[in-house]
Amino acid sequence: MRFELLQPRSLAEALEMKKDYRERAKILAGGTDLLVLLKDGKLRAQAVMSLGRLSELNFIRSEGERGVAIGALVSHSDVAASRIIQQRCPDLAEACAQVGAAQIQNLGTLGGNLCNASPAADAAPPLLLMDALLTLASARGERRVAIHDFFLGPRRTVLEPDEILQEIFVPQPVGRRGATYLKLGRRKAMEIAIVGVGVAIHLNGSDRIVSECRIAMSSVAPTPLRARRGEAIFANQEIRDELIEEAAEVAAEEASPISDVRATRGYRLDMIRVLCRRAVREALARARNHKAEGWR
Fold it and tell me: What distance in Å separates the CA atoms of residue 95 and residue 126, rounded to the nearest whole number?
């Protein structure tokens, strides 16, 4: 495993290097995925560009009523421990706290989790629920891409060969929102999700009528996805057990899981239904406990 190591000291320098090297240079953030792929010979690189010195990409910043901006190099442990994230995006904090073990959470980054484009990416469902926007930077300039358009397939994204993920922006949710992310693995740590389900419930003025429900899933299709037909079942409805059962069934129908060494297709479909039911009830309870005081 031989490659040239690039160590830019600023984002501007990194973008110039990426412009020159393009696909010949692989990006190293935390390295928890890239180094394993290189070591196992599943990926080859003429050069590896380490972003470890780019402190300008390591931040969590409140932008008031607009939302929250998160630098691509923020670690999973820092996302999980952030008071800003815990208050405004608790399901994202939950997801990052379930990525691997403590060592992986300390090394791995939010941006790396997204750019690796694994169908099982834990951070993807909460960000899909919140309509996150990703800032992609190059020497040519910046562009913003909705996370719904970012993933193209396993380990494939819309990133151009000269682009680097710079920032994840989470818009402010409207009204009373409750959300959760549930992950099923063979054990509690160092496990890739067999199934991951995130649910967000938005209430109108009462505790009973749902103005909007969102359901996002990982490890059930070639890319993380929203179960939009399942979501629609709750629109402007009072959540009842029969609706929860129906939505869980429809969400499973929207998935296209495979059988692999971790689980069979049938087991994954069953677990989508189980996690969806649990997540809806938990998200609803959180929404009812939420006081619509706005973001601080």
Answer: 7
Sheet holding 25-28, edge to edge: 4-6, 47-50, 25-28
Q: Give residue 209's identity as a one-letter amino acid code.
A: I
Domain boundary among 149, 171, 193: 171
CA separation, residue 141 to residues 11, 24, 291 (Å): 12, 20, 40
10: Cβ–Cβ under 8 A, 6 or more apart, which residues?
54, 56
Q: Looking at the domain assignment, is residue 294 inside a domain?
A: no
Pseudo-torsion of CA 45, 51, 57, 59, nearest 10°?
120
* Cβ(201)–Cβ(131) below 8 Å: no
Q: From residue 29, how far is each of 88, 153, 252 by CA, in Å?
A: 25, 21, 34
Domain that holds residue 257: 176-289
Q: Which helix (H) or strand (E) holds 249?
A: helix 241-254
Q: Is residue 35 part of a domain?
A: yes
> How far is the C-alpha of 86 from the C-alpha of 92, rounded, in Å?
8
Mean pLDDT value across residues 278-285: 96
Same domain? For 235 and 92 the reply is no
Q: How does pLDDT run across 169-225, given as a tens digit for each residue?
A: 999 987 789 999 999 976 555 568 899 999 999 998 778 889 999 999 999 999 999
pLDDT tens digits for range 30-80: 888 888 888 888 788 889 999 999 999 999 999 998 999 999 999 999 999
CA–CA dist 196, 138 (Å, integer)? 32
Distance CA 130, CA 171 (A): 7
Q: What is the DSSP letter of 97?
A: T
pTM to 2 decimal places: 0.92
